[in-house]
Structure formats: structure tokens, C-alpha cells
Design a protein that fits this description.
single chain; Restriction alleviation protein, Lar family; two-stranded antiparallel ribbon; alpha+beta; globular
Length: 73
């Protein structure tokens, strides 16, 4: 399943939704309380992953989408 489909399918569910990037943290049901990925347009990720993306951008060491947990599901 690709990341965009994952967000569209699970973000509106009543059960907790895991972050598609790390697979550990849960996303808030209010999209504005999550982080938007810097690399995948319109994809919500957890705040910890948002911070990690910012740090990786600064050091030019971005995580490819195929390395995200959702890519392995």
C-alpha cells in the first residue's frame, strides 16, 4: 500500500492510526496536530518523524519513501 492511500484510508478511522513513516507513534485524528512530510506531498506523519525529517534535511541525509514502515506492509 502506498503512503497516500494509507493516510486516506486510516486517518479517518476511530481506532488509532500508526505513523506510516516509523510505524510506532500514533497519529492524532485531527490532521493539523500531526506533521506534514517534507518529502511526500499531503502525507501526515507523527511529530517525532517530522522533527527527524527536518534534522535529516539539514544534514542532507533524507530517508527514502521505500524505507518507510508502510512500504514494508
Amino acid at each position: 500500500m502506498d503512503v497516500k492511500s494509507y493516510n486516506e484510508k486510516y486517518l479517518g478511522e476511530k481506532k488509532p492510526t500508526l505513523c506510516p513513516r516509523c510505524g510506532i507513534s500514533t497519529l492524532d485524528k485531527t490532521p493539523a496536530r500531526n506533521s506534514l512530510s517534507r518529502h511526500e506531498e499531503g502525507i501526515y506523519i507523527c511529530s517525532a518523524c517530522g522533527t527527524d525529517e527536518a534534522i535529516r534535511d539539514y544534514s542532507n541525509d533524507s530517508l527514502r519513501k521505500d524505507q518507510w514502515v508502510v512500504a514494508r506492509w
